[in-house]
């Protein structure tokens, strides 16, 4: 049998709350330490204990990071999904299953490795047998695939940093799994793992922790948050790093953290901090942004710097709280009642989560308007390979704040909302300074900040706000372009689709198409996006949602002659994007267009 | 050119920091003539002036409603923020987190505080957020033309409409139950008492709630209303006469009462002197305060004075564990860790 190295997908079906996450992360880390390009997707339920969880690991020498179209190796531990998982397998797949689960193995067209995982685990310690069961299947896989013992042990040590007894117990359990496979089976499947040379050392980190670090290096001064999946670990990341990175010699912090009573209060606190001259932020998900809408409008209208991170989950309503989607684009871009338009930064990698983490504060203070970071569950909660974070290439930009009496007095005329420089961005003074004390308000106001219902005051204010945001377009992170010389088909996409685009591109190019890519990294859209569309014969806007929200924004903003060149491919089922689904849909859309 | 001698300058009374009272006034009120809220605005001006607070070190905070418009009418040299309905406490909390050295003076109404924003009020109390929080409480929604609010008393009748039968929310009782560290009730017509209470609240570190019955002359000042001027004047039970003795001048203007009195020291060294009227009320006794409120409610009366006081609880700033310098004054190099630190972090992550 010809062996298949580093090109397959492993699906591990367990119940959550049983400790399977740490076992799966050990396996993932062990592949990673062998230099094998690997990605992991945790499909977990909205529940603490007992519901089905799947962990999908894709090994790919191509570097493909999507979950893949099929499972090659299935680990069955959870009786609840047993039949369904088994039925979904293609003939020839490998099944490693827990013999003690008292479930039927009714497929004869698969390669079956029954392992009494629970009784092996009980041998080590009956009290924690459930936890140890998971490590046993890692040991079985290690033996079956040929994972280096050193890589495995190093992964265990990383997972249980400094907890010697846990490390020892896990290594023993791994050995039991390995031995069981060795003693009871002759390998009759083709799957192996081969070490690869590590050219650039990398580490695994999830997008939420990366964004948290970015915020810390952005000088965040106040974090107000309300726990919500999948953003909690972003806020908790900041909280965890403060004692290490943001305290004085006596341990006093330079960043306040307040766990708010709800998302409305969290947003209010962010505005309060921005109004007072500080760098305030919150992290939430779609339902939280829904609740924050009123304050978002106030921040836009009263021009208060404020940073909101939205780690997108599946909506509408409570939706699928632990699944991924790109469905908050429109809500962020046009958030709150009345005419509004907001700046949205959209990272596609963990490096960008870090970068946009600090940049968001500079941008919000520069433009005196709310700035959103739009991540999603896939990017935020799964681990991605990272070469390291790049230090900010510019000093903090605190924007147009008048801090000095001399500077203040040099103004011919001062008004909080007076457009002195013609860029739509006015100057502000801070509470406590005694300079230009005004009562900020969400009601209509004139350039001096005084209440006004005059038609010209309202019209001019709204026109200035529009020009201010328009002026940001080309100063925000530019789109990333990968262009073919032929300019046949262009794909516009955003965010975590970055992790699937290469595979989609390969699938499309296998049909003979020449495909260029444009990854949007901010709203309002950079002028480069429009130029990309103009250069290409046909453009597809690819999104993980139902309605094509980014497509909708393009339709609204593009000149008429370009609108017909742009087509939407939007699909979402809650899963991280699988390349085949999107490439098929792109192909059928192109077919319709060309008819 | 006139040879007439220059007119001698009019003597302007200055406060302890040499500011005239004019430095504390604001714009012209646009509320209905005779509104109780305007009396409270005047008391705020007097209290801030007499306390000698630098006007620009005050932050005026409000929500939405008639009461929340009033920050435009006092302290014109202070920055302010007229936020959204009921959400002033959270905005104030965020501002305080980055600049704890300002005096946060919140003004709210009964719609703001007892309905849409009751959650934020409760949580600001729970955190012992360091602010003065004045509720200008008239039992009706004024700006939307006279609907009952959640503080309307049972049996009370506004100018138009039926007698209210829905149980009111007593914000003072609520605050005492929550462990609020300074709880008072007053009446916009009791200028002397209200001035003392606001001055004392300004000297308090922690959440100071002053629930002020402030009649709505347009929608709720008829004889059948239990929040009209006439009704409150006749049915007010004053727990004690209150006098405020500032820390910078502890002997001036203090009338030594003939009967019993109790001095309560505030965080900045000032004193509020409570002269008992009838039965002695001990403001450190939450149960006594709740009893007084309950008995007054049963008798359809309003009890006023400093109901409850506790100076032992830490204010929010202590809980936040921050550096002494207000965060907005912390230099950039303390906010952004160095490149060397990021390099170390990258190395540690690489393992």
In short:
Chain A is α/β, with parallel strands linked by helices. Chain A is built from 20 helices and 24 strands.
Describe this protein's structure.
The complex is a heterodimer of chains A (595) and B (351). Chain A is an alpha/beta fold and 595 residues long. Chain A has four domains: 189 residues, Pyruvate-ferredoxin Oxidoreductase, domain 3, CATH 3.40.920.10; 182 residues, Rossmann fold (3-Layer(aba) Sandwich), CATH 3.40.50.970; 78 residues, no CATH class; 115 residues, Rossmann fold, CATH 3.40.50.920. Chain A is built from 20 helices and 24 strands. In chain A, strands 10, 11, 12, 13, 14, 15, 16 and 22 form an eight-stranded mixed beta sheet that branches. In chain A, helix 1 crosses helix 5, helix 7 crosses helix 8 and helix 7 packs parallel to helix 12. The longest helix of chain A has 21 residues. The radius of gyration of chain A is 26 Å and the shape is globular. The two termini of chain A are 45 Å apart. The model of chain A has no long low-confidence stretch (mean pLDDT 96). With 351 residues, chain B is an alpha/beta fold. Chain B has a single domain, classed as Rossmann fold (3-Layer(aba) Sandwich), CATH 3.40.50.970. Helices cover 30% and strands 19% of the residues of chain B. Chain B contains twelve helices and 13 strands. In chain B, strands 2-1-3-4-8-7-13-9 form an eight-stranded mixed beta sheet, sandwiched between helices. A three-stranded antiparallel beta sheet of chain B has the order 10-12-11. Chain B has a two-stranded antiparallel ribbon with strand order 5-6. In chain B, helix 3 runs parallel beside helix 5 and helix 4 packs across helix 5. Chain B is globular and about 75 Å long. The relative contact order of chain B is 0.12. Chains A and B meet through helix 7, strand 11, helix 9, helix 10 and strand 18 of A and strand 2, helix 3, helix 5, helix 11 and helix 12 of B.
